[in-house]
Design goal:
InterPro entries: Ac_CoA_lig, ACAS_N, AMP-bd_C, AMP-bd_C_sf, AMP-binding_CS, AMP-dep_synth/lig_dom, ANL_N_sf. GO terms for molecular function: acetate-CoA ligase activity; AMP binding; ATP binding. It is built from 20 helices and 30 strands. The chain is an alpha/beta fold. The strands form eight sheets. Strands 12-11-8-6-7-14-15-23 form an eight-stranded mixed beta sheet, with helices on both faces. It has a seven-stranded mixed beta sheet with strand order 5-4-17-16-18-19-20, sandwiched between helices.
Amino acid sequence: MSNYHIKHLEEYFQVYRKSVQDPKRFWEEIAEEHFVWKKKWNEVLSWDFEKPEIKWFDGAQLNITENCLDRHLPSRGNKTAILFEPNDPSGGAQHITYRELHERVCRFANVLKNQGIGKGDRVCIYLPMIPELAFSLLACARIGAIHSVVFAGFSATALSTRINDCDAKMVITSDGSYRGAKTIDLKGIVDEALQDCPGVQSVLVAKRINTDIHMEAGRDHWLQPLLEEAYADCAAEIMEAEDPLFILYTSGSTGKPKGMLHTTAGYMIYTAYTFKNVFQYREEDIYWCSADIGWITGHSYIVYGPLANGATTVMFEGVPSYPDFGRFWEVVEKHKVTQFYTAPTAIRALAKESLDLVERHDLSSLKILGTVGEPINEEAWHWYNDHIGNKQCPIVDTWWQTETGGMLISPIPFSTPTKPTYATLPLPGVQPVLMDEHGKILKGNQTDGRLCIQFPWPSIARTIWGNHQRYKETYFSAFPGMYFTGDGALRDEVGYYRITGRVDDVIIVSGHNLGTAPIEDAINEHPAVAESAIVGFPHDIKGNALYGFVILKENGEDRDRDNLKKEINQMITDHIGPIAKLDKIQFVPGLPKTRSGKIMRRILRKIASNELGNLGDTSTLLNPEVVDQIIEERQ
Ligand code: 6R9
């Protein structure tokens, strides 16, 4: 039996049992058998969720880039490591082999050193999805610098806040970026941000769109000539297992963004292990995750997890709608993608379009489909299963967080039978529990509560950069001795987990706890509905009432609105009960979304409650204009 590659359900249960009974031995075997170390550990795990302090493989020394690059050179030197698919479909894909990637990372690492960057320094990366983005993460890791990637859709203010929070010495960016038919002036945004960032000493600029940009003398340098001059080899810095690898910001429910800090050995082992199992990865596969490396999904499952397994990972610069809504499927066909991993929001958007855009492509190379980022509703799940997977591809609904570093609850394809909208079972090493609001563990199945994890897994974030107290308060205080995820979940009769959404999305109506996700699921099943979001607003008698924001499909646009409202409420009554009926329904052209596709319920809640004066920061939204439209047509 191999702990590292689970192939059937019985094996899953055996491996899972072992991982819980003797977690140290379990992870130690994986660490020994599948990774290269400069020095072995003194202790596999020490932990204290009260302090909180978590250490995995303390005393070990390694460099993650040797595990992702150098060790593959003898056997996979000529294999494609990164398959870059540009924004422009006629632009030609680039196949970057492991040998080339190694060389580019080494040159880049030398450039960083020549610019005075060393171990422990923070480097902010603000790049579009071009190969230099992957190179720059790995170059930082090569020399022990801590990367902090900021998604290249964030504004100058969001960027400067993140640069200053971690005191980055350097920014890596590009002259601009492509986004569908548009170009974006990234360097202009960096220039604006840097007016408020006195700590930044240098800026490296990759050329992408070839426009004339301002280069600040003494501070800004074109990347390409520096790479050409640099040595093609760079010894990997020796890192301690618990040395920081990167910071990644995630928004909290209040206050400034939290810089989640991930460290080296545990993160490497866990992302590699979960990649291998959840995607049942095999040597000849072509794996594609459509996320942006600006999010944790891209860090763990475009860069580190796949490369640690010697995989071919597709990097896509474009958007799903350019040149048309068939682009994803065109790319799958073109590169014969075997695993495809995306977000429910993308699936819903694509499902709204003509099926012709799917059917004109040969998707027979696909073996496994994945989703991440939010609960997937039943309708989207079936569309994905029927039309993309042709009912042949298991769907892995992977639940995890920036804070968890890797997937925690997910089916293992061909082992765990899938169930629509369920993330199913915990991965080996993960010990979830459901808690009631009084802090009692809910035993047994057919129950629901707040999702906590009661034992550390290797890739849990170790702190919030510069604010350990906030780390403790946010994750370890609600239920002492447990990591609190902030999510609610239910456990069905066989022990499968279904994530019901953020706990703060629970609305109590007349004393009944209603999660927004199941109501939205019910509404979305109406044939005229494309997407919906439910929030609560204060109500004299019920405490809270429900307000639904609904996007119609094209076939619903001409329908009588009052009839539609009645039908929608009937759907809810049928699926959940009359208690969950909506008091107000507003048909909207779009929903305010974060750049990663999450609905900003905070804003919808304010609109529903008529608190229009204080909408908070909308600058990080993907589509801020939609907010004004919604306000204008408020019910
Ligand atoms: C990886 C990522 C984390 C939050 C998480 C939860 C939601 C993620 C989900 C899911 C239901 C899934 N979430 N995956 N909800 N089913 N499969 O998305 O990280 O951006 O930090 O978001 O996303 O609410 O707590 P992050």
